[in-house]
Amino acid sequence: MNWNLIGELIRLRYKLMWAKARLRSGKIALFAIGYLLFIMVIALLAAGGFGAGVVAIQAGKAEKVCQIVLSALFVNAVFASLLLGFGMSAAFSEAELRRYPVYARERFVARHFLGIVDPFWLFMLALELGLVLGLYGYGSYSLWDGVAAVLLLLACSYLLTRLLGEWIDRLMATGSGYTVVVVGIMCLSLAPATAMAVFNKHRDLIPKAMAVLRFSPPFGAATAMTHNGLEMFYGFAMLASWTLAFAVLLAILERRPVGQPQVAREPGSLWDSRFDRVAALFGPAMAPMVGHWLRFYLRNRRFRILYGFSLPLAAFLTNNTGRMGRGEDNLFLGALGSMGVVAFIGTSRIAVNQYGYVGGAFRRFFLLPTDPGASLRAGSYAAVFLSALWIPPAAILWAIFAPRPLDPRMIFMPVMNAVTAMFLFHGLGLWTSLYAPRRGNYDKSLGNDMSLIGNIALIGMVLGCMFLPRVLDATAPWTVDPENWWLTLAPAATAIVFYIASLRGATARFPARRERLLAVVEGRA
Amino acid sequence: MTFETDAIRITNLEKRYGATVAVADLSLVVPKGSMFGFLGPNGSGKSTTIGCLTGLLDPTAGSIEILGEKFTAESAPLKRRMGVMPETLGLFDPLYAHEFLGFVARMFGLDEADTRRRVTDLLAALDLTDTRKTLAEYSTGMRKRVAFAAAVIHSPDVLFLDEPFESIDPAGVAAMKQWLRRFTEQGRTVFITSHVLETVERLCDRVAIITKPGKLVWQGDITVLANDGKLEYEGRGFNSLEALFLHLTGERYSDLNWL
């Protein structure tokens, strides 16, 4: 293993980061990293970390608490990475590293070492180290055994995430891959609630499940942290075996090239396109541009995963947030928020970074004999159109599962919230596309290519949708009372006005931003 | 307002990026119906100039007139008469070639029947008949052909081609050259950049050479070379475009002993 060359690559990565930090956007990112470090310190001390360690000692159930906390962190890390794209960005691609005289295993180590030092994984490590410090400080557990165990567990969760990500990428390049991935995500989304229901009904299954889980990486880490002698060795051996197995599988999978994305050819002749038929609804002037953007969205793997995932996610969120509080009315509160999420989550990645995935083709928009802002508007129309398509099915699903007797106002209000969220988010998306663009990879199925501001817009909107109805229910319950259903008209109307104003404002500013956008999307800034 | 005899008239064009000057005080006239070669070493500002000429970049100072009208990024009617093959090609990778060309044709105002006819003709002429591949799956040469097709599909009056022949096979280059010659014979104008000086010498009738930072150092008729004539610069004669280019842009040779 040529550690010198690997070291050079790692140094290069940080030189590039530092070079970026000298730019204005880099300074913002630097501030964000500082903020993240602050959050990590809090995480270290928070309930999932240090606090859990203290609870574990006080309750006298150190191993059990460790098993629960580490399992939750492990599962959350894997799912947050796969679904939200955190910690999935690669500093160097395999193709880039092949230019240098390093062997395959050295490239593998360099890429994944740089991958695991992503802030997201460091955040997870902070939580896990918090637990170790809690056990060490309040109990008599070994600090170094704990540190070694959580480092191995982190490597294990990182490698599993990468493995799943690579597998999904390859799956999405096959004809039936999209269906398999969406069905898989739906099943996994529903799995926790289903498992809880099954265990509540058949409590005798719990010990059997625990016996199986003893072979999982988080349980292995818990054993290594809380035992001595042979049992500790067993815990480390299990962790090491999982880590090695994931690493080997990942290395094997990475050697298999990802196929080209399967773009469904439409039936009929070359010229009979459903995209063009739909785009014709937007009038002859906009139709070609909208048709282009519809193709751009619908042929994007990431869009297709998120779009397909929208409805199951809404069901999951309605159920989960609806059961946070009291009574059946809370399902309605859940629906108020989740319907909003349905109305933008599918298109979100591209909508907040409309030109980020276009690359050099961005130039084309300025060579066309039309006002340059037309491409921005057309892209947004396509996104709003696609998002709006999900609102009726979501409303029908909610109508089917809503508490009985069915009150039409309890359908109307979530639908209006969806309209509000859709126009608000896509209005914001126009501004983030102009002022916070980031170069992304169109062909990747997973990963987070959004800028910091894009992330804030998306996460802020999701959190807003999830928690605003609850906050209103606690502070001004009359605002979420079906009796006052008409109140939802005002935010919807405001959001539409905001969207129209954003279309005009962003279009007017587009020409002035084009050189900056060009530099970003072509990778020169 | 210029006479219609000028296809392009650039006056005191300047483009700055902060303190960096990419193009400095460039003035140039391209006669209508000419095949005009625009040459310069790497980083001399050729692509920046084409960016300004095609509405991609806003000049810091100076003016541009195309076909006798003032040109800005907002000049949609003028853009309708221009065809551009940018350096980065500007292709939408997820599309099929016929979809991309159909999109460009419709954006340039061609009706449905004309769009279909021209796309079909261009795909056949440029040997792009594999309709199962998206543009992302095409080879570099095929992508270049698609970009060329997109530049000419609406029969423009002025054609800007940035390095059009790189990566295209000899047969493709020969066909393109023939089309371009016919294009100029019809009184239309081609503005071309290339580093292949032999091609420029054989294809173009007029040439401008710029050096860093976007400063014009020579322009003139090069058809004299075909009749064993010489290109004149400061009283000195050059019997090839390459000789003049190297003289103007600085002949440098460093002996790398270790190579």
Any descriptors?
heterodimer, A: mainly alpha, 2 domains, 22 helices, B: 259 residues, alpha/beta, Rossmann fold, 6-stranded mixed beta sheet, 4-stranded antiparallel beta sheet, 8 helices
Q: Would you give an account of this structure?
A:
- The complex is a heterodimer of chains A (525) and B (259).
- Chain A has helices at residues 3-21, 24-45, 50-59, 62-84, 94-97, 104-116, 119-138, 143-172, 177-201, 205-213, 217-226, 229-255, 274-279, 287-298, 301-322, 329-342, 348-351, 364-367, 373-401, 409-435, 452-475, 489-521.
- With 525 residues, chain A is mainly alpha-helical.
- In chain A, helix 8 runs parallel beside helix 12.
- The radius of gyration of chain A is 25 Å and the shape is globular.
- The model of chain A has no long low-confidence stretch (mean pLDDT 83).
- Chain B has two domains: 1-81 and 157-170 and 184-259, Rossmann fold, CATH 3.40.50; 91-155, no CATH class.
- In chain B, the strands form three sheets. A six-stranded mixed beta sheet of chain B has the order 6-7-8-3-9-10, with helices on both faces. In chain B, strands 2-1-4-5 form a four-stranded antiparallel beta sheet, with helices on one face.
- In chain B, helix 3 packs across helix 4 (112-125).
- In chain B, 44% of the residues are buried.
- Helices cover 32% and strands 27% of the residues of chain B.
- Chain B has 259 residues and is of the alpha/beta class.
- Chains A and B meet through helix 14, helix 18 and helix 22 of A and helix 2 and helix 3 of B.
